[in-house]
Amino acid sequence: MATQSESSTDVGVGLTLALGAIATIGAALMLVGAPEIEAAWGFGIAIVFAALAIVAVHLYWD
């Protein structure tokens, strides 16, 4: 007889950690390239991937 079971995955946690790591790299790039255009790219990367990490938490968190 088959029984139904609820299975949860850690997709939300893994995706959040991966996107958070990329956001941290972007923040480090912003710090290292302070007065140059690389700082602007680092800021953009940090903001975009931090927002995507928040979206991943809301989509996949049980």
Task: Characterize the structure shown.
Pfam families: DUF7525. Keywords: Membrane, Transmembrane, Transmembrane helix. With 62 residues, this protein is mainly alpha-helical. It has one domain. It is built from two helices and no strands. It is rod-shaped. The two termini are 27 Å apart.
Q: Count of helical segments?
A: 2
Beta-strand percent range: under 5%
Global outline: rod-shaped
Number of beta-strand segments: 0
- H-E order: HH
Distance between the termini: 27 Å
Structural class assignment: mainly alpha
Q: Look at the structure and give the mean pLDDT.
A: 84
- Our count of domains comes out at 1
Q: Radius of gyration, Cα only, in angstroms?
A: 17 Å
Biggest sheet record: none
Supply database-style keywords.
single chain, 62 residues, 74% helix, 2 helices, mainly alpha, rod-shaped
Strand and helix map with partners:
Layout: H1 11-32, H2 37-60
Helix pairs in contact: 1-2
Summarize this, please?
Keywords: Membrane, Transmembrane, Transmembrane helix. The protein is an all-alpha fold.
